[in-house]
Amino acid sequence: MNYSDLLAISPIDGRYKQKTFMLKNIFSEYAFFKFRITIEIAWLQKLSLTSHITELPAFNAKINNMLNNIIKNLNYHDIKQIKLIEKKTNHDVKSIEYFLQKKIYVNLFNSHIINFIHFACTSEDINNLAYAYMVKKTRCKILIPLWKQMTLKIKNISHLLKNINMLSRTHGQPATPTTMGKEMINFYYRLNRQLIQLQYISILGKINGATGNYNAHYASYPTINWNKISQEFILSFGIQWNAYTTQIEPHDYLSELFSCIFRFNIILINFSQDIWNYIALNYFKQKKINQEVGSSTMPHKINPINFENAEGNLGLSNAIIYYMNTKLPISRYQRDLSDSTVLRNIGVVISYAVIAYQSILSGIKKISINIKYMILDLNKQWQLLAEPIQTIMRKYNISNAYEQLKLITRGKNVNIQNIHHYIDSLNIPLYEKKKLKKITPTNYLGYSQYIIKNLCN
Hints:
Number of domains: 3
Largest sheet: 2 strands, antiparallel
Structural class: mainly alpha
Number of strands: 6
Helix content: 55-70%
CATH class of the largest domain: Mainly Alpha
Strand content: 5-15%
Distance between the termini: 46 Å
Order of helices and strands: HHHHHHHHHEEHEHHEHEHHHEHHHHHH
Radius of gyration: 31 Å
CATH architecture of the largest domain: Up-down Bundle
Number of helices: 22
Strand order of the largest sheet: 1-2
Protein backbone atom coordinates (compact mmCIF):
# COMPACT_ATOMS: atom_id res chain seq x y z
CA MET A 1 0.00 0.00 0.00
CA ASN A 2 1.48 3.35 -1.04
CA TYR A 3 0.90 6.84 0.35
CA SER A 4 -1.90 7.68 -2.11
CA ASP A 5 -3.77 4.53 -1.00
CA LEU A 6 -3.61 5.73 2.59
CA LEU A 7 -5.21 9.02 1.51
CA ALA A 8 -8.11 7.31 -0.30
CA ILE A 9 -11.46 8.42 1.12
CA SER A 10 -13.24 5.24 0.09
CA PRO A 11 -12.02 1.81 1.25
CA ILE A 12 -12.78 0.60 -2.28
CA ASP A 13 -9.68 2.43 -3.56
CA GLY A 14 -7.75 2.18 -0.31
CA ARG A 15 -8.02 -0.73 2.09
CA TYR A 16 -9.64 -3.05 -0.47
CA LYS A 17 -7.69 -1.83 -3.49
CA GLN A 18 -6.35 -5.27 -4.39
CA LYS A 19 -9.83 -6.80 -4.32
CA THR A 20 -11.29 -4.20 -6.69
CA PHE A 21 -8.30 -3.65 -8.95
CA MET A 22 -9.90 -5.52 -11.87
CA LEU A 23 -12.76 -3.00 -11.87
CA LYS A 24 -10.53 0.00 -12.63
CA ASN A 25 -10.51 -0.83 -16.34
CA ILE A 26 -14.31 -0.66 -16.33
CA PHE A 27 -15.47 1.94 -13.80
CA SER A 28 -12.64 4.43 -13.33
CA GLU A 29 -12.87 7.95 -14.75
CA TYR A 30 -10.20 6.92 -17.25
CA ALA A 31 -12.24 3.89 -18.36
CA PHE A 32 -15.44 5.93 -18.65
CA PHE A 33 -13.71 8.38 -20.98
CA LYS A 34 -12.32 5.52 -23.06
CA PHE A 35 -15.75 3.90 -23.45
CA ARG A 36 -17.24 7.22 -24.56
CA ILE A 37 -14.41 7.91 -27.01
CA THR A 38 -14.99 4.42 -28.42
CA ILE A 39 -18.69 5.23 -28.98
CA GLU A 40 -17.94 8.62 -30.57
CA ILE A 41 -15.43 7.16 -33.04
CA ALA A 42 -17.65 4.18 -33.86
CA TRP A 43 -20.55 6.58 -34.59
CA LEU A 44 -18.32 8.64 -36.88
CA GLN A 45 -17.32 5.46 -38.72
CA LYS A 46 -20.95 4.39 -38.98
CA LEU A 47 -21.90 7.73 -40.55
CA SER A 48 -19.13 7.36 -43.12
CA LEU A 49 -20.65 4.05 -44.21
CA THR A 50 -24.08 5.63 -44.73
CA SER A 51 -24.32 6.18 -48.48
CA HIS A 52 -26.80 9.04 -48.28
CA ILE A 53 -24.30 11.16 -46.36
CA THR A 54 -22.31 12.14 -49.45
CA GLU A 55 -20.52 14.89 -47.57
CA LEU A 56 -18.73 12.19 -45.57
CA PRO A 57 -17.33 9.59 -47.98
CA ALA A 58 -16.57 6.10 -46.69
CA PHE A 59 -13.32 6.10 -44.78
CA ASN A 60 -10.37 4.32 -46.32
CA ALA A 61 -8.09 1.97 -44.38
CA LYS A 62 -5.71 4.79 -43.46
CA ILE A 63 -8.44 6.88 -41.82
CA ASN A 64 -10.00 3.91 -40.04
CA ASN A 65 -6.61 2.80 -38.70
CA MET A 66 -5.93 6.30 -37.44
CA LEU A 67 -9.32 6.42 -35.69
CA ASN A 68 -8.91 2.95 -34.20
CA ASN A 69 -5.44 3.87 -32.96
CA ILE A 70 -6.87 6.82 -31.03
CA ILE A 71 -8.75 4.25 -28.93
CA LYS A 72 -5.95 1.70 -28.88
CA ASN A 73 -3.26 4.18 -27.86
CA LEU A 74 -5.33 6.28 -25.49
CA ASN A 75 -3.17 7.23 -22.52
CA TYR A 76 -3.02 9.30 -19.38
CA HIS A 77 -1.82 12.36 -21.34
CA ASP A 78 -4.90 12.21 -23.59
CA ILE A 79 -7.31 12.00 -20.67
CA LYS A 80 -5.48 14.84 -18.97
CA GLN A 81 -6.01 16.96 -22.09
CA ILE A 82 -9.75 16.20 -22.00
CA LYS A 83 -9.92 17.14 -18.33
CA LEU A 84 -8.18 20.46 -19.08
CA ILE A 85 -10.77 21.19 -21.77
CA GLU A 86 -13.53 20.22 -19.33
CA LYS A 87 -12.30 22.85 -16.88
CA LYS A 88 -13.24 25.45 -19.48
CA THR A 89 -16.40 23.89 -20.88
CA ASN A 90 -17.72 22.38 -17.63
CA HIS A 91 -19.07 19.59 -19.86
CA ASP A 92 -17.29 16.27 -20.11
CA VAL A 93 -18.87 14.94 -23.34
CA LYS A 94 -18.34 18.23 -25.20
CA SER A 95 -14.74 18.10 -24.02
CA ILE A 96 -14.38 14.68 -25.65
CA GLU A 97 -15.75 16.13 -28.90
CA TYR A 98 -13.25 19.01 -28.86
CA PHE A 99 -10.41 16.63 -28.01
CA LEU A 100 -11.29 14.33 -30.93
CA GLN A 101 -11.63 17.26 -33.32
CA LYS A 102 -8.12 18.40 -32.51
CA LYS A 103 -6.69 14.86 -32.51
CA ILE A 104 -8.18 13.99 -35.90
CA TYR A 105 -7.32 17.33 -37.49
CA VAL A 106 -3.68 17.02 -36.41
CA ASN A 107 -3.50 13.59 -38.06
CA LEU A 108 -5.54 14.29 -41.23
CA PHE A 109 -5.70 18.07 -41.70
CA ASN A 110 -9.31 17.45 -42.71
CA SER A 111 -11.74 19.90 -41.21
CA HIS A 112 -14.72 18.31 -42.94
CA ILE A 113 -14.47 15.01 -41.09
CA ILE A 114 -14.32 16.68 -37.70
CA ASN A 115 -17.66 18.38 -38.31
CA PHE A 116 -19.30 14.96 -38.16
CA ILE A 117 -17.90 14.09 -34.73
CA HIS A 118 -20.86 13.84 -32.33
CA PHE A 119 -23.17 14.48 -35.31
CA ALA A 120 -26.85 14.87 -34.30
CA CYS A 121 -26.04 13.44 -30.88
CA THR A 122 -26.99 14.53 -27.42
CA SER A 123 -24.55 13.73 -24.62
CA GLU A 124 -26.81 11.00 -23.34
CA ASP A 125 -26.57 9.17 -26.68
CA ILE A 126 -22.91 8.65 -25.87
CA ASN A 127 -23.17 8.21 -22.11
CA ASN A 128 -25.96 5.63 -22.08
CA LEU A 129 -24.09 3.43 -24.55
CA ALA A 130 -20.87 3.78 -22.57
CA TYR A 131 -22.68 2.66 -19.41
CA ALA A 132 -24.36 -0.19 -21.30
CA TYR A 133 -20.96 -1.26 -22.61
CA MET A 134 -19.52 -1.07 -19.08
CA VAL A 135 -22.38 -3.09 -17.60
CA LYS A 136 -22.16 -5.69 -20.35
CA LYS A 137 -18.43 -6.11 -19.73
CA THR A 138 -18.96 -6.28 -15.97
CA ARG A 139 -21.60 -8.97 -16.27
CA CYS A 140 -19.47 -11.04 -18.67
CA LYS A 141 -16.00 -10.59 -17.13
CA ILE A 142 -16.72 -10.02 -13.43
CA LEU A 143 -20.14 -11.03 -12.16
CA ILE A 144 -20.84 -14.24 -14.05
CA PRO A 145 -17.38 -15.75 -13.36
CA LEU A 146 -17.57 -14.85 -9.65
CA TRP A 147 -21.17 -16.02 -9.28
CA LYS A 148 -20.33 -19.29 -11.02
CA GLN A 149 -17.31 -19.75 -8.77
CA MET A 150 -19.36 -19.23 -5.62
CA THR A 151 -22.32 -21.36 -6.66
CA LEU A 152 -20.03 -24.19 -7.74
CA LYS A 153 -18.11 -23.96 -4.47
CA ILE A 154 -21.32 -24.22 -2.45
CA LYS A 155 -22.57 -27.06 -4.65
CA ASN A 156 -19.32 -28.97 -4.06
CA ILE A 157 -19.59 -28.38 -0.31
CA SER A 158 -23.12 -29.75 -0.44
CA HIS A 159 -21.95 -32.89 -2.18
CA LEU A 160 -19.07 -33.39 0.28
CA LEU A 161 -21.34 -32.92 3.31
CA LYS A 162 -24.41 -34.75 2.03
CA ASN A 163 -24.03 -37.51 4.65
CA ILE A 164 -23.13 -35.21 7.56
CA ASN A 165 -26.17 -35.33 9.84
CA MET A 166 -27.13 -32.15 11.60
CA LEU A 167 -29.60 -30.83 14.13
CA SER A 168 -31.90 -28.30 12.48
CA ARG A 169 -33.06 -25.18 14.24
CA THR A 170 -36.36 -23.46 13.57
CA HIS A 171 -36.92 -20.29 15.59
CA GLY A 172 -33.43 -21.04 16.95
CA GLN A 173 -34.75 -24.15 18.71
CA PRO A 174 -33.95 -27.84 18.03
CA ALA A 175 -36.01 -29.18 15.12
CA THR A 176 -36.25 -32.11 12.71
CA PRO A 177 -32.74 -33.29 11.70
CA THR A 178 -31.22 -32.60 8.31
CA THR A 179 -27.76 -32.84 6.77
CA MET A 180 -25.30 -30.00 6.34
CA GLY A 181 -25.14 -30.87 2.66
CA LYS A 182 -28.90 -30.44 2.29
CA GLU A 183 -28.73 -26.99 3.89
CA MET A 184 -25.93 -26.00 1.53
CA ILE A 185 -27.78 -27.24 -1.57
CA ASN A 186 -30.66 -24.95 -0.60
CA PHE A 187 -28.29 -21.97 -1.01
CA TYR A 188 -26.84 -23.35 -4.22
CA TYR A 189 -30.30 -23.67 -5.77
CA ARG A 190 -31.31 -20.16 -4.76
CA LEU A 191 -28.08 -18.57 -5.98
CA ASN A 192 -28.06 -20.51 -9.23
CA ARG A 193 -31.57 -19.26 -10.08
CA GLN A 194 -30.28 -15.69 -9.86
CA LEU A 195 -27.22 -16.58 -11.94
CA ILE A 196 -29.47 -17.92 -14.70
CA GLN A 197 -31.64 -14.78 -14.56
CA LEU A 198 -28.60 -12.49 -14.66
CA GLN A 199 -27.44 -13.99 -17.94
CA TYR A 200 -30.78 -13.30 -19.66
CA ILE A 201 -31.38 -9.69 -18.63
CA SER A 202 -31.34 -7.48 -21.74
CA ILE A 203 -28.92 -4.55 -21.73
CA LEU A 204 -30.44 -1.65 -23.66
CA GLY A 205 -29.12 1.40 -25.46
CA LYS A 206 -30.33 4.29 -27.57
CA ILE A 207 -28.90 6.86 -29.99
CA ASN A 208 -31.81 9.01 -31.17
CA GLY A 209 -31.05 12.62 -30.28
CA ALA A 210 -32.16 15.26 -27.85
CA THR A 211 -35.63 13.93 -27.07
CA GLY A 212 -35.59 10.54 -28.76
CA ASN A 213 -37.20 11.62 -32.04
CA TYR A 214 -34.22 12.02 -34.44
CA ASN A 215 -35.16 15.68 -34.91
CA ALA A 216 -31.70 16.88 -35.95
CA HIS A 217 -31.09 13.72 -37.94
CA TYR A 218 -34.28 14.19 -39.96
CA ALA A 219 -33.64 17.89 -40.49
CA SER A 220 -30.19 17.12 -41.95
CA TYR A 221 -30.90 13.94 -43.93
CA PRO A 222 -34.66 13.31 -44.22
CA THR A 223 -34.29 10.39 -46.65
CA ILE A 224 -32.17 8.25 -44.30
CA ASN A 225 -33.87 5.56 -42.22
CA TRP A 226 -32.40 6.71 -38.90
CA ASN A 227 -34.30 4.03 -36.96
CA LYS A 228 -32.42 1.39 -38.96
CA ILE A 229 -29.05 3.16 -38.58
CA SER A 230 -29.58 3.50 -34.83
CA GLN A 231 -30.59 -0.13 -34.42
CA GLU A 232 -27.64 -1.43 -36.46
CA PHE A 233 -25.19 0.73 -34.53
CA ILE A 234 -26.40 -0.36 -31.09
CA LEU A 235 -26.62 -4.04 -32.02
CA SER A 236 -22.99 -3.88 -33.21
CA PHE A 237 -21.99 -3.51 -29.53
CA GLY A 238 -24.00 -6.55 -28.51
CA ILE A 239 -26.55 -4.28 -26.85
CA GLN A 240 -30.32 -4.39 -27.40
CA TRP A 241 -31.84 -1.37 -29.16
CA ASN A 242 -34.40 0.68 -27.27
CA ALA A 243 -36.52 2.55 -29.83
CA TYR A 244 -38.75 4.30 -27.29
CA THR A 245 -36.98 6.86 -25.12
CA THR A 246 -36.86 10.49 -24.13
CA GLN A 247 -33.45 12.16 -24.11
CA ILE A 248 -32.28 9.32 -21.89
CA GLU A 249 -32.47 5.57 -22.03
CA PRO A 250 -34.87 5.15 -19.08
CA HIS A 251 -32.62 2.79 -17.06
CA ASP A 252 -35.29 0.14 -16.53
CA TYR A 253 -32.83 -2.56 -17.57
CA LEU A 254 -30.38 -1.29 -14.96
CA SER A 255 -33.08 -1.64 -12.33
CA GLU A 256 -33.72 -5.20 -13.52
CA LEU A 257 -30.01 -6.01 -13.38
CA PHE A 258 -29.55 -4.39 -9.98
CA SER A 259 -32.59 -6.22 -8.61
CA CYS A 260 -31.02 -9.52 -9.61
CA ILE A 261 -27.73 -8.53 -7.93
CA PHE A 262 -29.72 -7.39 -4.90
CA ARG A 263 -31.39 -10.81 -4.57
CA PHE A 264 -28.09 -12.65 -5.06
CA ASN A 265 -26.53 -10.47 -2.37
CA ILE A 266 -29.45 -11.01 0.02
CA ILE A 267 -29.10 -14.78 -0.36
CA LEU A 268 -25.38 -14.47 0.35
CA ILE A 269 -26.11 -12.40 3.47
CA ASN A 270 -28.36 -15.26 4.60
CA PHE A 271 -25.55 -17.73 3.76
CA SER A 272 -22.92 -15.68 5.62
CA GLN A 273 -25.11 -15.38 8.70
CA ASP A 274 -25.86 -19.11 8.73
CA ILE A 275 -22.18 -20.04 8.37
CA TRP A 276 -21.38 -17.53 11.14
CA ASN A 277 -23.94 -19.23 13.37
CA TYR A 278 -22.74 -22.73 12.50
CA ILE A 279 -19.26 -21.62 13.52
CA ALA A 280 -20.69 -20.28 16.78
CA LEU A 281 -22.42 -23.65 17.34
CA ASN A 282 -19.08 -25.40 16.73
CA TYR A 283 -20.47 -27.20 13.68
CA PHE A 284 -17.66 -25.69 11.63
CA LYS A 285 -14.11 -25.37 12.87
CA GLN A 286 -11.96 -22.48 11.70
CA LYS A 287 -8.47 -22.88 10.32
CA LYS A 288 -5.83 -21.48 12.64
CA ILE A 289 -3.33 -19.16 10.95
CA ASN A 290 -0.44 -18.52 13.34
CA GLN A 291 0.37 -15.01 12.16
CA GLU A 292 -3.22 -13.79 12.52
CA VAL A 293 -4.70 -12.17 15.63
CA GLY A 294 -8.35 -12.60 16.54
CA SER A 295 -8.61 -10.02 19.28
CA SER A 296 -6.46 -7.20 20.64
CA THR A 297 -7.06 -8.45 24.19
CA MET A 298 -8.26 -12.09 23.97
CA PRO A 299 -5.45 -14.28 22.56
CA HIS A 300 -7.68 -17.35 22.12
CA LYS A 301 -10.02 -15.79 19.55
CA ILE A 302 -10.43 -16.98 15.95
CA ASN A 303 -13.17 -14.78 14.56
CA PRO A 304 -15.31 -15.49 11.44
CA ILE A 305 -14.24 -12.14 10.00
CA ASN A 306 -14.58 -13.10 6.33
CA PHE A 307 -18.30 -13.77 6.70
CA GLU A 308 -18.77 -10.64 8.80
CA ASN A 309 -16.89 -8.59 6.20
CA ALA A 310 -19.06 -10.10 3.46
CA GLU A 311 -22.28 -9.32 5.32
CA GLY A 312 -21.29 -5.68 5.78
CA ASN A 313 -20.16 -5.11 2.20
CA LEU A 314 -23.16 -6.91 0.73
CA GLY A 315 -25.35 -4.63 2.83
CA LEU A 316 -23.57 -1.55 1.50
CA SER A 317 -23.94 -2.74 -2.09
CA ASN A 318 -27.65 -3.39 -1.58
CA ALA A 319 -28.24 -0.07 0.16
CA ILE A 320 -26.95 1.78 -2.89
CA ILE A 321 -28.87 -0.55 -5.22
CA TYR A 322 -32.06 0.23 -3.31
CA TYR A 323 -31.62 3.95 -3.91
CA MET A 324 -30.65 3.44 -7.55
CA ASN A 325 -33.70 1.28 -8.19
CA THR A 326 -36.02 3.94 -6.80
CA LYS A 327 -34.19 6.82 -8.49
CA LEU A 328 -32.97 5.79 -11.95
CA PRO A 329 -36.26 4.83 -13.65
CA ILE A 330 -37.68 8.28 -12.87
CA SER A 331 -36.84 11.35 -14.98
CA ARG A 332 -38.75 14.63 -15.08
CA TYR A 333 -40.41 15.18 -18.47
CA GLN A 334 -37.93 14.40 -21.24
CA ARG A 335 -34.83 14.61 -19.06
CA ASP A 336 -33.34 15.88 -15.83
CA LEU A 337 -29.74 15.54 -14.74
CA SER A 338 -30.22 13.95 -11.32
CA ASP A 339 -29.44 10.50 -12.70
CA SER A 340 -26.00 11.55 -13.94
CA THR A 341 -24.19 11.59 -10.61
CA VAL A 342 -26.05 8.47 -9.47
CA LEU A 343 -24.94 6.48 -12.53
CA ARG A 344 -21.32 7.23 -11.71
CA ASN A 345 -21.74 5.00 -8.66
CA ILE A 346 -22.48 1.78 -10.55
CA GLY A 347 -18.85 0.84 -9.94
CA VAL A 348 -19.34 1.42 -6.22
CA VAL A 349 -22.24 -1.07 -6.16
CA ILE A 350 -20.19 -3.68 -7.97
CA SER A 351 -17.06 -2.99 -5.90
CA TYR A 352 -18.74 -3.58 -2.54
CA ALA A 353 -20.30 -6.77 -3.93
CA VAL A 354 -16.98 -8.02 -5.34
CA ILE A 355 -15.22 -7.37 -2.02
CA ALA A 356 -17.91 -9.46 -0.32
CA TYR A 357 -17.76 -12.28 -2.87
CA GLN A 358 -14.02 -12.60 -2.40
CA SER A 359 -14.41 -12.55 1.39
CA ILE A 360 -16.90 -15.41 1.24
CA LEU A 361 -14.60 -17.46 -0.98
CA SER A 362 -11.73 -16.82 1.44
CA GLY A 363 -13.91 -17.67 4.43
CA ILE A 364 -15.03 -20.98 2.93
CA LYS A 365 -11.38 -22.03 2.59
CA LYS A 366 -10.85 -21.49 6.34
CA ILE A 367 -13.62 -23.74 7.68
CA SER A 368 -13.96 -27.50 8.10
CA ILE A 369 -16.82 -29.62 9.37
CA ASN A 370 -16.85 -30.72 13.05
CA ILE A 371 -18.60 -34.07 12.69
CA LYS A 372 -18.03 -35.35 16.23
CA TYR A 373 -19.61 -32.31 17.84
CA MET A 374 -22.58 -32.37 15.47
CA ILE A 375 -23.34 -36.03 16.25
CA LEU A 376 -22.95 -35.33 19.96
CA ASP A 377 -25.39 -32.45 19.68
CA LEU A 378 -27.92 -34.58 17.80
CA ASN A 379 -27.78 -37.43 20.28
CA LYS A 380 -28.95 -35.12 23.05
CA GLN A 381 -32.21 -34.40 21.26
CA TRP A 382 -34.43 -37.48 21.60
CA GLN A 383 -37.48 -35.28 21.98
CA LEU A 384 -37.26 -34.70 18.21
CA LEU A 385 -38.73 -38.16 17.71
CA ALA A 386 -42.05 -36.89 19.01
CA GLU A 387 -42.76 -35.91 15.41
CA PRO A 388 -42.53 -39.37 13.76
CA ILE A 389 -44.22 -41.06 16.75
CA GLN A 390 -47.27 -38.81 16.75
CA THR A 391 -47.47 -39.08 12.94
CA ILE A 392 -47.61 -42.89 13.14
CA MET A 393 -50.22 -42.60 15.91
CA ARG A 394 -52.38 -40.47 13.60
CA LYS A 395 -52.00 -43.16 10.94
CA TYR A 396 -53.67 -45.62 13.34
CA ASN A 397 -56.39 -43.17 14.34
CA ILE A 398 -55.14 -42.61 17.89
CA SER A 399 -56.87 -39.52 19.24
CA ASN A 400 -54.95 -36.50 20.51
CA ALA A 401 -51.63 -37.93 19.30
CA TYR A 402 -50.03 -34.50 19.04
CA GLU A 403 -51.26 -33.44 22.48
CA GLN A 404 -50.00 -36.66 24.10
CA LEU A 405 -46.48 -36.21 22.72
CA LYS A 406 -46.54 -32.53 23.61
CA LEU A 407 -47.29 -33.47 27.21
CA ILE A 408 -44.25 -35.75 27.58
CA THR A 409 -41.66 -33.89 25.43
CA ARG A 410 -42.29 -30.14 25.30
CA GLY A 411 -39.62 -28.30 27.26
CA LYS A 412 -38.36 -31.54 28.83
CA ASN A 413 -35.14 -33.56 28.77
CA VAL A 414 -36.02 -36.78 27.00
CA ASN A 415 -33.74 -39.80 26.51
CA ILE A 416 -33.87 -43.04 24.55
CA GLN A 417 -35.43 -44.92 27.46
CA ASN A 418 -38.30 -42.44 27.72
CA ILE A 419 -38.98 -42.67 24.00
CA HIS A 420 -38.85 -46.47 23.79
CA HIS A 421 -40.99 -46.86 26.90
CA TYR A 422 -43.65 -44.66 25.32
CA ILE A 423 -43.49 -46.55 22.03
CA ASP A 424 -44.05 -49.84 23.91
CA SER A 425 -47.22 -48.41 25.46
CA LEU A 426 -48.82 -47.59 22.11
CA ASN A 427 -51.69 -49.58 20.61
CA ILE A 428 -50.07 -50.00 17.19
CA PRO A 429 -48.77 -53.06 15.29
CA LEU A 430 -45.55 -54.61 16.56
CA TYR A 431 -43.71 -53.99 13.27
CA GLU A 432 -44.49 -50.26 13.58
CA LYS A 433 -43.06 -50.26 17.10
CA LYS A 434 -39.90 -51.96 15.85
CA LYS A 435 -39.66 -49.46 13.02
CA LEU A 436 -40.07 -46.52 15.42
CA LYS A 437 -37.41 -47.90 17.76
CA LYS A 438 -34.92 -47.97 14.91
CA ILE A 439 -35.34 -44.24 14.40
CA THR A 440 -32.73 -42.13 16.20
CA PRO A 441 -31.94 -38.42 16.09
CA THR A 442 -29.00 -39.22 13.80
CA ASN A 443 -30.90 -41.27 11.20
CA TYR A 444 -34.23 -39.42 11.12
CA LEU A 445 -33.29 -37.66 7.89
CA GLY A 446 -36.11 -38.23 5.43
CA TYR A 447 -35.01 -37.61 1.83
CA SER A 448 -32.30 -35.07 2.70
CA GLN A 449 -29.50 -37.08 1.09
CA TYR A 450 -31.54 -37.90 -2.01
CA ILE A 451 -32.56 -34.27 -2.52
CA ILE A 452 -28.90 -33.37 -2.94
CA LYS A 453 -28.30 -36.21 -5.36
CA ASN A 454 -31.31 -35.25 -7.48
CA LEU A 455 -30.27 -31.61 -7.81
CA CYS A 456 -26.63 -32.47 -8.50
CA ASN A 457 -27.79 -34.80 -11.27
